[in-house]
Design brief:
about 210 residues, alpha+beta, five-stranded antiparallel sheet, two-stranded antiparallel ribbon, 7 strands, elongated
């Protein structure tokens, strides 16, 4: 008959209990710290998204505001030829062509004009493309006379002849239609642009089509 040695109950000392409790406390603290850190990241991301959305809304408002102002000016110009050949500019064209925004980024309107023209020429390879002309530019706060709120958004507008103009001359308007693009530039790469086809018929100027440029 086999003989089994009696087992001795495992005894846990008070020090062991305290050590286990300390380990559990440390693990819990690490877990809660991780959860808190994740929550901070989520909240920070949501705040960044919300701030970016607000900047986008403000920029869109500014671009549309400048477009409206330019259309009103065009209505007062009897002959758009001087506008299309670059001889006539808006009364709102006193700002610099190279400007630094609040975040330190730089907007170069000469380069922006070249980029617009390059895109247009790629899209219209079959014919002579009309020329984008920089027509209006400056701080949006100056346009709406709210300089006390600071200069955060810079705006610019370009005008060109429409693509269906039969004369193929970017400085001549044969159809009574031009295209206006207004762009607003804000800090942190915020940019919104709107474009409108503007027509004149029987002396009345109206917006034929309007759209957000993606």
């Amino acid at each position: 008959m086999s003989h089994r040695e009696p087992t001795t109950p495992l005894e846990v000392s008070g020090g062991d209990r305290r050590g286990s409790a300390l380990l559990v406390t440390m693990l819990t603290a690490v877990l809660l710290s991780g959860l808190a850190g994740a929550l901070v990241v989520v909240l920070s991301t949501e705040e960044a998204v919300e701030a970016n959305h607000r900047r986008g809304v403000v920029a869109l408002y500014a671009a549309d505001g400048l477009l409206t102002d330019v259309v009103a000016e065009l209505a007062a110009v009897p002959d758009w030829q001087a506008v299309l050949n670059g001889l006539r500019r808006s009364t709102f064209s006193t700002g610099p062509l190279l400007v630094s925004l609040a975040d330190g980024s730089v907007i170069n309107l000469r380069q922006e004009t070249l980029d617009l023209q390059r895109v247009l020429e790629r899209a219209d390879e079959a014919r002579v493309s009309p020329q984008w002309r920089l027509y209006a530019w400056g701080w949006f706060a100056d346009l709406v006379h709210e300089t006390d709120r600071g200069r955060l958004v810079y705006v610019a507008a370009w005008i060109r002849d429409d693509l269906v103009d039969p004369d193929a001359d970017s400085g001549q308007d044969a159809t009574g239609r031009v295209v206006v693009r207004a762009t607003a530039f804000g800090p942190f790469r915020t940019r919104r642009a709107v474009e409108a086809a503007v027509g004149r018929e029987s002396g009345a100027v109206s917006v034929i089509a309007w759209g957000l440029v993606r």
